[in-house]
């Protein structure tokens, strides 16, 4: 028992002290160490202690020479829907609890499906396909083919009139533009949430658009407003007291007014909301600066 506890990253004597069923993180640790352990048996005492071949799907559910390369499960184990769901949770970097929340299923029901004690319902598999559109339906239902597929959305062609209005501007997440100060910075298509065409920006050089989060710049900007940003290539072009987007090493993306600082080699960041005091940012901490050229707001 002590060896089981050690390999499951549990404290010595854990099972002698436990008075109720193990917590979710403990179950995940045990499953990680012993993937053949039937977690449904561990929770409820039902079924066999170990998963076995009696719960595998029919042989004709999978093509034996169709190779799927997995770091965790071999081709034989992927014949079962439960282990395909387990494999998918690994690919999505989600533990069982978070995966269950994502696909709107009870955690213990999910564990029962993964352990093979219960069959996966069509509703569960359809939920998985809805939540994760890049999952290959053929693979999740039958085990044939690759687990994930490339999603290439069909773009609606721009009309001649629309093209004349202006260039489409990408709306991206703050994470995606964290490195915009880098000379090799480029926005990947997968990071684009959507494109905006704004006639007023036709003659402005807009590099990207991001959503405002938080209330530090209220009333100038509300959380959810979309701001258009132009990257500043030279620091001496900073327009003092104007709103800027600042990329920093430690705090990520900030939206603040910029002012000269009394401290050497620093820039002062000022919020419009008086509840947020100004602070100094060391220049060495800044990886990029963009000026806010405009804003789109919905009331």
Blueprint of the fold:
Layout: H1 2-7, H2 14-17, H3 24-33, H4 39-44, H5 81-91, H6 96-102, H7 107-115, H8 122-131, H9 137-142, H10 160-165, E1 169-172, E2 192-196, E3 208-211, E4 226-231, E5 243-248, E6 252-260, E7 266-270, E8 279-282, E9 286-296
Helix pairs in contact: 5-7
Describe this structure in words.
This protein has about 300 residues and is α+β, with helices and mostly antiparallel strands. Helices cover about 25% and strands about 20% of the residues. It contains 10 helices and 9 strands. The chain has helices at about 1-5, 15, 25-35, 40-45, 80-90, 95-100, 105-115, 120-130, 135-140, 160-165, and strands at about 170, 190-195, 210, 225-230, 245-250, 250-260, 265-270, 280, 285-295. The strands form 2 sheets. It has a 7-stranded antiparallel beta sheet with strand order 3-4-9-5-6-7-8, with no helix packed on it. A two-stranded antiparallel sheet has the order 1-2. Helix 5 crosses helix 7. It is elongated and about 70 Å long. The relative contact order is 0.09.
Brief write-up:
The chain is an alpha+beta fold. It has helices spanning 2-7, 14-17, 24-33, 39-44, 81-91, 96-102, 107-115, 122-131, 137-142, 160-165; strands spanning 169-172, 192-196, 208-211, 226-231, 243-248, 252-260, 266-270, 279-282, 286-296. A 7-stranded antiparallel β-sheet has the order 3-4-9-5-6-7-8, with no helix packed on it. It has a two-stranded antiparallel sheet with strand order 1-2.
